[in-house]
Each structure stands twice: as structure tokens, then as C-alpha cells.
Amino acid sequence: MVAAGSITVAVRVRPPTSWEGARLPQQTYDNCIRTDGALSTPAKSTATNAPLREVIQIVDDRVLTFDPDEKDPSRAFVERGFVPPGTKRYKDRRFIFDRVFDYQARQQDVYHGTAKPLLSNLLEGYNATIFAYGATGCGKTHTISGTDADPGIIYLTMADLFQQIEDKREENIIDVVVTFLEIYNEEIRDLLAEPGTPTPRGGLQIREDKNVKVVGLTELRPRSADEVKEIVLLGNSRRTQSPTHANETSSRSHAVLQVHVTQAPRTASITEQRMMGTLSIIDLAGSERAAATTNMGQRMVEGANINKSLLALGNCINALCESGGAIRHVPYRNSKLTRLLKFSLGGNCKTVMIVCIAPTSLHFDDTQNTLVYAERATRIKTKVVTRNVVNVDRHVGQYVEAINRLNLEVSELKQKVAGKRDLEAEKDRRKRREAAAEVERAKSDMQQKADQMQPSIVDGASCAGKIAVAEAKLKVIRARLAQLDTQASSSSALPSDLEAERELLKALAGPEEEVIKAQSALNVRVQRSSNSSAMFDATLRAVGERRSDKLDEFAVDNVKLDARWRKAEMERVKAEARQEVLQEAVTRQAEVVVSLIGMVSRCTVMLGDASRILGTAVAEGRDGMEATVKALSSSLKHVAEGNDEVFKTLLGHSIAAYAVGAAPQGPSSLDNFKGYPTTLGIGRAASGPIAPQHGKPRLSRRSSSYGASVPSSPLRKAHKSPRKSLRSSMASAALPYRRVSDKDKGKRKGVQWRDEAGQGDIDDGGVGAVGPTITVFSSPDTTTIFSAGASTVGSSSASTSTRSMSGLSLESEWEDEKTDDSLQFSFAQPSMHDASSSSISAVRKRPRASRLDPSFLKSKSRGSTLGSLAEDDEDCAAAQGSPTKRLGPLSDRNMNRASSPEGSTRSRATLG
Ligand SMILES: Nc1ncnc2c1ncn2[C@@H]1O[C@H](COP(=O)(O)OP(=O)(O)OP(=O)(O)O)[C@@H](O)[C@H]1O
């Protein structure tokens, strides 16, 4: 129940039309000095000859002033001319309404302030009426219907109504019926009747019961606000409109849209309680003063009818106002309009009257009348408004209908429940899909980052590997340099060979030191890589910790696992890159080592041969000596050059560049030769244990003098010993050489030997060495035995293949440093080699073939590795077309042939 009260009256001021706007005074800003001395620029309208002025001044949202007073007398004079004293120049009348909307108010504002509060009443079963009243052209149709782009109260109300109906549909069956009619010249016309249908368009009758009803109206059941909008647009297009002087599209009829809302609860009972509410939205035709119009003919008749009905409405309003609660006759029956609005004005209804007015003096009188009319309406006292609730007793037949409806409802609900289940399942599926998509997104983010960062990270790992290699090399080089430095500091100057070695090592250390510098290009790349790595880790962390509504626990674990896998994968790739670099370095180093081993071993053999040739030459006498020495000198020179080239190829540096320090007259490096470094304190170079050789006696540790790591090696002693350097050099350069240590003195000692040609044992027979003894055994058929020092060399345990030194009568002997260094060679063989003929065939007793001798090499070509070299050389010689064009004793020995083709070419120079 809504308490008794009054109808709500709201005033809306339309904006000036463009025509009016052009005739209104423009606002100007006059500068003036205010009394407080400040410069003021108040805005004011200039009282020029503008034909129109604004007659409405909005005070606040409920109050307006009609024809406000002009405070400026000069302007007042200009506007109104002379006014006798005592007369009021301006109406300056203040009106108070329930709401006042200025011309800036939007349709929404008007809707919220007027129609919206009625909606809830309507759905609770109350009647409600909204009607727009005003002079022609003041904005009634605009307010009620609006345009497609800017819909008015009808559309906005319907949109809200259908929304609220939707919310209530679960519990109620709600029926919405719409009718649309016009009252034109006191005739009721159906605006929704389609042409050609039996429904009569005009001449409809009003039936009054508890309610007012127009019989025979087309009833439409829209299901949305848009459908209502279409209905209204359709009806408006059928509404009688004509252009008048005041309005191009002046409505010449009153249009009434009625929305009947009936609600019944879905739960069935013996009596059904129905709620009915009717919302009437009325767009009245504009009032017009006949005197002010130039309308003639039909327009004049229309105008008269409009005015008649509006007058009847006014009279009803007056009667309702004046009654003051007393029962007084209200002349509703004077017009169709008032008959229709009977219950809206004085009955069981909540009513809102929207009064539209124009803002300018052009509609001065109309506006004034309208405002007076509206003000009177505010005084209408309405009755207590009650709900339209009907209790309908059901007939038996209705039960069947109710049962059917309930069955329908049950099946609908079943469907809904099933649908809900489906919905749940679908929801689950959707969630899973979203989670999977989210996981994919996370994975792809990580993949993208991995793709982005991997090249830099891998590059960093490679660089780190290279730096590690450089550090390892440097460690070894520095260790050796430290040894040399210690040696240099203990003696006044290093021998030239060690000096050259030191310089070479320094040169080799240079680039490695550059590499490990903090600012080196490699280190910069390592730094860059570690930044990339950090970024990659951060991305993995961020993605792994990413939280989202879409991610369930399983998905989060999935992402985390993927992140861990990617990290591990990146580590693997990094390790691979590093390993690759290290492997390359090891391979490279192995190549260098192999090349150098080859070179050194062949040089060693070559030195042995050179020594033997020299010995033979000495035995031959002075003539042979000179030629041999010359040839040897030339050969050694070529060999040295070849070696240099190999050095350059392998290490990028030539030893020759650093060996120039030795003065031609100075002590020879041969004399100063201190042996080879055995260990640099960093372990044996070989990466694995030395495998014993099958079928051959295993060399004792002492005899494996090549093993650089054997600390007790006699070779180590050799370069500590002040004994003759040549002996040392021979001992350290040739594998089978063995020095009998002091410990062995007095004992019968068995010495194992091995070289390319064979192996065997030497027994010193327990004679004991007087001095250091170096005994060299070579291949059985070409045995050469050097006995250094006064030693007696016993027969070899493999005596069939070895001969004692005395048996061969080939001996080299020198004193130790306590005596004058002298080199004594006694050669049993009268002639070893003739340098000019390069042949050893002249030897009386078949001598051991020199490894430098092509015939030896040829003879060994099948079984010996060295033979293969000789074969190569021979082939080359043959290729040169002359076997007789044999080179000098060492000239066919290219020590570096395998590694350096250039060196090979160079070494082919002829002797002499
Ligand atoms: N608030 C407003 N904002 C903008 N334009 C408006 C407004 N009110 C009215 N108009 C415009 O003024 C003109 C007249 O309005 P409308 O047709 O609504 O007047 P009316 O009161 O319905 O006239 P009639 O009684 O002759 O049918 C129309 O062009 C309309 O667009």
C-alpha cells in the first residue's frame, strides 16, 4: 500500500532550438574595476537588439524562476521600455516542483528522476502513469519516445522492467501486454492494428469497470525492451503528426502506451493470487493558443480538440485539487483523455507528470500557462494507492491446466538440472582447457626465453672452456718458466738453448695471459653469458611462481617441472659446449705432442747417426773428416730449419727467433745442454697408464728414461751432474742409452734395452762401472754400441743379437769434467762413411747401417717405422730421376716431414 499523497510533477526545460539560439543575446565579458580594486570580468548578456531572451532561470533541482527580474535598470528599460511606477516590470515568479531538469539534463537523468521509482510499484501490483504535458514543440515526444539513438522514457523504462521481470521469472509467471493508442479529435485509434486486419483502427470504446479499458485494442506481448521500442516506433509512425508553425513534427493527438503486467506465482494452490499493474505512458498533444497560431482548417479543428481535452484535464486537476479531500465531482467524462486518465489522476495510481517548457521568451505565455497548470497539479491529492491483487479460485478444469503447467515446469526444471550438470562438466572442461592453455603459455614463454638466451649461454660456456684451456696451458708454461728462472738465478746466465726455450715459452704464455685477463674478449663474453643465464633463471623462477585463477595445483606442478627440466637442459647444453671446447683443445694438444714426439724422436736418432758418422770420419782421417763435418753441418742446418718451421706451424713461434743469442764463438748449446725437463710438478703428460708392450720385456722404471715423470731417472741426474754435456745429451736424447748409477757399482747389473729394431738385456757382469756408463744397443744386425766412460760392458743376455762394444771396436769415450773435456772416439771400423759418395759400402766389415743412410732405411723399410720415412725419401729421390743423386748423410732425413711439407721440401737441399 502506498500512502495517499500527490502526483509527482517534474519540469523539464528544453534547450533553445537553433532558431531561438540565433536570436538570443550572446554572452559578453565586460572588464570593470571592482570596488576592492580587482579587475573583474563578469559574464553578462548584452542587452542589444536580440529579439529573444531566456525566461527560465533554474534556481536548483526543484526551483525555477519564470521571467526573472533584470537587476540592471538600463537593460530592463531596453527590454521592457517604460513601465509606470508601482507596476511589476518582470513576472519574476518562483515555482517549486518535485524535480526541475535544465536543458543539459540527459534522457537518463529524466528517467531516473521520474519513471524509475514507479517501476518497483508496478511489479508489486500498483498502477502507474507518466504523462508529458506542455505547449507544442516543448519536448514532450522527445522526452517520452526520444529517438533511436537517444531513446526516451519508454525504452529506458521497458529495459529496466524486462530486467526486473527476468529476475522474478524463477518464482513467477509474468505476462506483459502492450497496447498503443491515440486520441485524435476525440476518437480512440489503435496504433498497433495492422492495416487489413479485422481489428478496427479507430472508433474504439472505453469500458469502465474497476479499471478503464479500451475495448478491441491490439495487444502485443513483447519479450524485450527492444521489441517495445520497435512497437513504439511503429505506433509513432502511425500517429497523426502534422507540421505546425511551432513544430515541424507536431503530434496532433494524445498517444497512450499501456503496459499491463500480470504476475502469478509458479507454485500452484487452490486459489491463485494474481497481481496486475498497468503502466500508462502518455504523450499529450501540445497545447496551443489559438490566437497565437495561424493554423487553419483541419489543423485548427485538431487544435481545438487538443485544447478541449487538455482543458478537461485541467478542470479535472482543478477539481481534484480543490476538493481537498472532500467528495466532489470530477468531470472525467468531458473528454476521452480524462476518461482514460481517470484512475491515473484520482484513482488507485501513482502518477508522474512531466511538464515540458521552452526556455525563451518566444513561448512566454505558453510557458507561463504550463507552469501555472503544473503548479496546480502539484496540489492534487491522491487517494491511498492499493495493490491490484486478485485471488482466483480455480475450477476443476483449471487444475488440469495447472497440472499441465506444473508438468511443464517439472520438465523444464529437470532440463535445467541436467543442463546444470552439463554446465558443471562444461565448466570443468573449460577450466581444464584454460589451465592447459595457461601451462602452454608458460611453457612457450620459457621456450622463447631459452631460445633467446641459449646462444649467448652456450657461447659463454665455450668461452669458459677456452679460458680453462688457456689457464691449464699457462699453468704448465709458468711451471717450466719457474724452473728455468730458478736455474737462471743459480747460475750467472742460462745456456743459450735454455734461454731460447725460456723466450719461446714466454712468447707462448703471452696469448694465454691475454685470454685469461678479466677484460679479455672471452671474459666479456663469459660475463654476458652469465647475465643471460641469470635472466633465464629469473624467467624460469617467475614463470614457475606465476599464479593465476586458471592454474590448478597440477598445472602449477607441471609448469614447475618444466622449468626445472629446462634449467637442467640448459646446463646440459652448457656442459656439452664446454666439453666440446676441451675436447678440441685436447685433440689439438695431442696433435702437437705427437708431432713433437715424432720430431724429437727422429732428431734423437738423427743425432745418434750424426755422432756415428763423425766418429767414422774421425777414424778415416783428416781428409774424410772435413768433408763429413761439412756435410753434417749442412744437414743439421736443414734439420734445424725444418724443425723451426714445424715449431711455427704447431706453436706459431720458431725457436730460431730466440736461439740467436748464442755467439758464434761462444759455448755451444751442445756443451751446455742440460737435458730435458722431466717434470714440471704438474703430473705426467700422459692421460693414462703406460701399457706394457706385448712380447717384450717390460722396461724398468729406470730404463724408461723417456718417462718424464720418473724422478729417479738417470736423465734427471744427467742434467744435475757435472758430467759431460754431450754424454748427457746423448743419454737423454736416445732411449736405449742407460747410465749405470753409482748404486750399481760393484754389482752385476742387468740392463734392459729396447729400440725400434729390437730389445735385449745387458749384463755388466758385476764388474762395476768405474764411471758413468752409457751403453747403447741397437738392432742386432746393425748394432752400435757406445760405451761412455771406462766401463766394461758384458755380453747381453740376448747375446745372439748383440755384440759387446769391444767386439765391434766402436767406442766413444770422454773424460769427466774434472779433467779437460775431451771427446775421444775410437772406431774399430776404418771407414764408416764417405761424405762425397754418401755411401757406407766401403766399410771393411759390414757396419751397422746408419739410420741416415738410405740403404739402411731401405733395408728397414718393411718392418721399421723409420723405414717408412726412408722409403718416402727414396721415393722422392727416385722421383727426381737419379738414385745416384743421393743427398748427404743427413740431408735425406727430414725430421719434420710428417708434419711439415714445407720443411720436407727444404730438407731436400743437397749437402756440401
Ligand atoms: N531536451 C531536448 N533536447 C534536445 N532536443 C529537444 C529536447 N526537447 C525537445 N527537443 C527538440 O525540439 C523539437 C520539438 O520537440 P517535440 O517534438 O518533442 O515537442 P512536442 O512537445 O512533442 O511537440 P508537439 O506537442 O507539437 O508534438 C524536436 O526537434 C526535439 O528534437
Automatic annotation (TrEMBL):
Residue ranges with Polar residues bias: 896-912
Low complexity bias: start-end ranges: 702-713, 790-809
GO CC term (a single one): microtubule
Coiled coil region boundaries: 396-487
Keywords noted in UniProt: ATP-binding, Coiled coil, Microtubule, Motor protein, Nucleotide-binding
One of the GO BP terms on file: microtubule-based movement
InterPro entries recorded: Kinesin-like_fam, Kinesin_motor_CS, Kinesin_motor_dom, Kinesin_motor_dom_sf, P-loop_NTPase
SMART domains: KISc (SM00129)
Region described as Disordered: spans on this chain: 684-766, 790-815, 829-912
Positions contributing to ATP binding: G134, A135, T136, G137, C138, G139, K140, T141
Biased composition (Basic residues): 716-726
Kinesin motor domain: residues covered: 6-380
Keyword field contains Ribonucleoprotein: no
Pfam families: Kinesin
GO molecular function: ATP binding; microtubule binding; microtubule motor activity
PANTHER family: CENTROMERE PROTEIN E, KINESIN-LIKE PROTEIN KIF19 ISOFORM X1
UniProt record similarity statement: Belongs to the TRAFAC class myosin-kinesin ATPase superfamily. Kinesin family.
Record-given protein name: Kinesin-like protein
